[in-house]
Amino acid sequence: MATITRDSLLSLEAYHKERPAFREKAIQERRLRTVHLGDHVTMIFENEFLMRYQIQEMLRVEKTFEEEGIEDELNAYNPLVPGGSDFKATMMIEYPNEADRKVALAKLVGIEHQIFIEVEGQPRVYAIADEDLERSTAEKTSAVHFMRFDLTSNMKRALKAGAQLMVGCDHKGYPMHVETLPLETLASLVSDLS
Which Pfam families does the record cross-reference, listed alphabetically (predicted)? Predict the structure, then answer.
């Protein structure tokens, strides 16, 4: 899969005109690619379009048009574009109450390494988390983690042939899984595979 390049981005002016349609598509795409693991863990499976939208939004908000600033955004978000043999996801641990969130983040240390996907008939694949920088300490985990799930050719073949995909967590403090993804969510994820 190709990465997003400077030449493929819209100018600030062009993006301003296209933004309403771009934003609406991003909302729909994000909803389609979101998997809730219970009430407190949300997985957003990223793709090229969502990262392109994020880059365009950051450039718009920061009014960035200098080459260096654009490159910074590309370098920040391109690592979240799937490479054709993997899924990339943002995991968020969400508790509305700050006190509850603080307690949960202390209890869930290491959760980012206990998130898995499992293609029907294949072994589980655990997330490779936070490759850019460590987001957890011995005392608490972060509320946001970035992860990659590497797939074998057999897993890709099975998914393309219609196998189901389970998404789950086996951290002792938050055992949870979604056994069956909606077909449209699964189809969107499979479209990331080359």
Answer: DUF3501
Domain with 44 in it: 6-190
Terminal alpha carbon distance of the chain: 7
Provide the residue type at 47 as one letter: N
Return the SS3 of 93: strand
The tens digit of pLDDT for each residue in 57-91 reads 999 999 988 999 999 999 999 999 999 999 999 99
0.85 cut: is pTM over it? yes
C-alpha angle 107/149/34, rounded to 5°?
70
Residue 1 lies in a domain: no
Q: Which amino acid is at 167?
A: V
**Residue from 107, 174, 164 nearest 141 by CA:** 107
How far is 36 from 27, CA to CA, in rounded Å? 16
Q: What is the domain count for the chain?
A: 1
Q: Which of 3, 53, 64 is nearest to 28 (CA)?
A: 53
